[in-house]
Amino acid sequence: xxxxxxxxxxxxxxxxxxxxxxxxxxxxxxxxxxxxxxxxxxxxxxxxxxxxxxxxxxxxxxxxxxxxxxxxxxxxxxxxxxxxxxxxxxxxxxxxxxxxxxxxxxxxxxxxxxxxxxxxxxxxxxxxxxxxxxxxxxxxxxxxxxxxxxxxxxxxxxxxxx
Length: 162
Known about the structure:
Layout: H1 7-14, E1 20-21, H2 28-32, E2 34-35, E3 40-47, H3 48-52, E4 64-70, E5 76-82, H4 90-105, H5 111-122, E6 128-131, H6 143-151, E7 160-161
Parallel strand pairs: 2-7, 5-6
Antiparallel strand pairs: 1-3, 3-4, 4-5
Helix pairs in contact: 1-5
């Protein structure tokens, strides 16, 4: 599929971001921890962190956006942040990254990405995903798990399967 046929790619371009085909914007090990089950495909991806590294060097930036199209469903966007989970102190860092992403999606240039994100929510997909490798200190039912849930972020996952 040509890039122009992907709503995610067009939305990225409107936000002055450079989309990559499939999951190519993600680093290898991180890319391997994101899978699409059943019929569907990753349309494009974007490295948000890389795109804003110079202009917002001190900001708690979110890493990746992924466009996906499942069979019989509209194209949508999910947001993935590979980040350590070996300490409960990482929760505040993740919440800051989530706020940064949510603020970005409120900007006019990001309106189409926000609409694709809303589409993922309507499809009951996890919209904001914290991926980790190694250990995970955030336990079900813990204060930290509740803080994450209140912000709309699930407990960290070792692997995302949609």
